[in-house]
From TrEMBL:
This is Phosphate transport system permease protein. It is found in: Cell membrane. PANTHER family: ABC TRANSPORTER PERMEASE PROTEIN YQGH-RELATED, PHOSPHATE TRANSPORT SYSTEM PERMEASE PROTEIN PST. The chain crosses the membrane at residues 35-57, 87-114, 135-159, 171-193, 214-236, 286-308. Belongs to the binding-protein-dependent transport system permease family. CysTW subfamily. InterPro entries: MetI-like, MetI-like_sf, Phosphate_PstC, Phosphate_Transport_Permease. The lineage of its organism: Bacteria, Bacillati, Bacillota, Bacilli, Bacillales. PROSITE patterns: ABC_TM1.
Length: 314
């Protein structure tokens, strides 16, 4: 083979570049882009670690500096950290309130969200997505304070007129937060159902199954881990919601005895009390400890989501 033919073959083997290099400018631009994306990734990691470290140090101050008993703090039923004499710091009613709102909101949003996702992806694919998708996007964009105002104006009076309570209750919080997490559950559920291979559905129809049999016995079991991930993500948002919950739940420091009783959550107590405490006081440090519980629960939700995602088969 001649030298000219070898050179031609060598040029043909080289990758074709859309932009030709001028004095190494392409390599410099690639280096700048690489540095920029590495910087963004490192910045997110550092910010997450910094927030975690800061909140951990602040949250532990009440136990280290103020000698607050951890067990009494978590299991105690009376919260009066700024009272005269012997102050008490039982946070269990708020922990219970946060978990109650989270699970009740999930019970409210999961059937509606998964049902809407089935409607969009399996029942009415064309016009269902055209109508429901914009509605979901609108729900995502509504500020939480608006949800709180609607709950305060509409839901609380309805509960007051149909129960023995004052309207501010776990039930009102459940409905408001359930609507707020509905877009998250619906969107992720729809993506999960879309990811099911069409071969599985065709095989089911080929065996004579009806549409509902295919949805109930084939599609939903195949997408179950992803659907569970959607619900847990919604629960993670519900656990950290503050403003809307604070406006409708009543913020009572007593333990609720029913779904129509007033209650309080970790976030509502923090937002209500933080501005009325002195920095470094026992009360202030205890509020940071409540924030540390929120952070720990956020990590727990992330671990659960990762475990569920690892069980995906489709």
């Amino acid at each position: 083979m001649s030298n000219s033919s070898q050179t031609t073959a060598s040029k043909a083997a080289q990758p074709h570049r859309l932009i030709k290099s001028k004095n190494g400018s392409v390599k410099r631009n690639e280096l700048r882009g690489k540095i920029l994306v590495y910087f963004c990734a490192i910045l997110i990691i550092v910010a997450t670690l910094a927030i975690t470290l800061f909140l951990t140090l602040k949250g532990l101050q009440s136990f280290v500096l103020n000698d607050v008993n951890v067990i009494k703090f978590i299991t105690g039923m009376v919260w009066s950290p700024s009272g005269e004499g012997d102050f008490t710091y039982g946070a269990f009613p708020f922990i219970f309130g946060s978990f109650a709102i989270t699970f009740l909101a999930a019970l409210f949003a999961a059937p509606l969200g998964i049902g809407s996702a089935i409607f969009m992806t399996e029942i009415a694919k064309k016009w269902g997505q055209k109508v429901l998708q914009p509605v979901i996007e609108i729900l995502v964009g509504i500020p939480s304070v608006v949800y709180g105002l609607i709950g305060l104006t509409v839901i609380v009076p309805i509960i007051r007129n149909h129960s023995s309570g004052v309207g501010f209750s776990l039930l009102a919080g459940m409905i408001v937060v359930g609507v707020m997490i509905l877009p998250t559950v619906t969107s992720i559920s729809a993506d999960a159902l879309k990811s099911i291979p069409s071969d599985i559905k065709d095989a089911s129809y080929g065996l004579g199954a009806t549409r509902w049999q295919t949805i109930y016995k084939v599609i939903l079991p195949a997408a179950l881990p992803s659907l569970a991930t959607a619900v847990v993500l919604g629960m993670a948002r519900a656990f950290g919601e503050a403003l809307a919950v604070q406006m409708v739940i009543g913020n009572s420091k007593a333990m609720p005895e029913g779904i129509t009783d007033q209650a309080a959550t970790l976030t509502s107590i923090i937002t209500l009390s933080m501005g009325h405490t002195t920095y470094g006081s026992v009360h202030n440090n205890l509020l940071w400890s409540l924030g540390l519980i929120l952070l720990v629960m956020s990590y727990v939700f992330i671990i659960i989501i990762r475990l569920i995602s690892s069980r995906r088969k489709v």
